[in-house]
Amino acid sequence: MKIAVIKGDGIGPEIVTEAMKVLDAAAAKYGHTFHYTQLLMGGCSIDAYGEPLTDETIAACKENDAVLMGSIGGNTTTSPWYKLPSHLRPEAGLLKLRKSLGLFANLRPCVLYPELRAACTLREDISVKGFDMLIMRELTGGLYFGERRTEAVDGVMTAVDTLTYNENEIRRIAVKAFEVAMKRRKKVTSVDKANVLDSSRLWRKVVTEVAEDYPEVTLEHALVDSTAMQIVKEPSQFDVMVTENMFGDILSDEAAMVTGSLGMLPSASLNETKFGLYEPSGGSAPDIAGKNIANPIAAILSGAMLLRYSLDLNEEADAVERAVQQVLTEGFRTADIMSEGCHQVSCSEMGTLIAQRV
Ligand code: NAD
């Protein structure tokens, strides 16, 4: 199986190295071979080729089954990368890559590990129940990609943004949501604003149609405002949540925040095939880069998602997730999640411990 690897900038190379260590442990245990192709994107690509993402890198990504990525970018005030025009900055590479690969579904699992409950920002009677939800956000349509303009209307400055979805765009993300739910607890919450928006009413209709093909999955519809409240009131009720671009942008940050541990959160962006790009939810953390103290767990769990969603290796993905759970239960912590009575380890030690438990 072929995996493109973009280690990126800052802590990217450190955490992705650990993710590869864990993937190799899974490969050894289950009798697979992963062939890695290392590629440059972001600041390191600017330094090497004068642009954040070359066409050759895009073509090389497409030749692989999936892309495992670290994070890109540097210190936005001091790094010379941020003196370049915006289309040549590190983040421009990421947007171009997502677009070139047709990645329309963004998956962000938000899990509260019992061992890290103290970091959860919710009241204890809520956090004690734990949660394991996955927010699936439509990534290429909706309000962020609709027609927009700012103009004077009768002498008054007026700005317009448009929220457009066609039934095909809704259907393909709904299908992804149900497929992912089949690999989890078989519940989908479709989030919209159908009491106000036409685009939401079409969204609800199409999602309901798609649900007929997945009789084992329970579907519920919820309004975005009430969902925002439910995430902080009773997050344990959610499994897969599917929603349009802007609602997903907001809800996924809210859900990430309540876990309290950014270094723990993986993400995946998928296209219509099984191809996907897997990366931690956090950034390149230039403040701690090169010190071997970053938390590699988000990158390692991104590797587990790659196994599950692009390579269909569910047992292997389970083994990686169980190994992460086990090191936490045994009391090993990187600096960012350290608490009293636990044993602090470096980034590379954490990777080795997880690989050993796989
Ligand atoms: P950040 O997520 O890099 O860092 C925020 C804080 O969280 C920092 O204190 C950092 O040390 C800490 N942190 C993040 N990941 C960690 C980990 N794995 N282990 C331990 N601590 C961790 O956000 P930022 O500082 O706002 O951005 C830094 C750079 O990253 C910027 O150039 C930004 O554009 C870029 N960025 C890239 C991506 C991406 O590649 N997808 C996403 C977000 C930000």
Overview in brief:
By secondary structure, the chain is α/β, with parallel strands linked by helices. The protein has helices spanning 12-30, 43-49, 55-62, 90-100, 124-127, 167-182, 198-211, 224-233, 245-259, 297-309, 314-329, 347-357, and strands at 2-8, 35-39, 66-71, 105-111, 132-138, 148-153, 156-161, 187-192, 218-223, 240-243, 266-270, 276-280, 332-333, 343-344. It has 2 domains: 1-105 and 260-358, Isopropylmalate Dehydrogenase; 121-256, 3-Layer(aba) Sandwich (Isopropylmalate Dehydrogenase).
How would you describe the overall organization of this protein?
With 358 residues, the chain is α/β, with parallel strands linked by helices. It has two domains: 204 residues, 3-Layer(aba) Sandwich (Isopropylmalate Dehydrogenase); 136 residues, Isopropylmalate Dehydrogenase, CATH 3.40.718. It contains twelve helices and 14 strands. A ten-stranded mixed β-sheet has the order 2-1-3-12-11-4-5-10-8-9, sandwiched between helices. Helix 1 packs parallel to helix 12. The longest helix has 19 residues. 45% of the residues are buried. The mean pLDDT is 95. Bound molecules: nicotinamide-adenine-dinucleotide (NAD). The site of nicotinamide-adenine-dinucleotide has 23 residues, from helix 4.
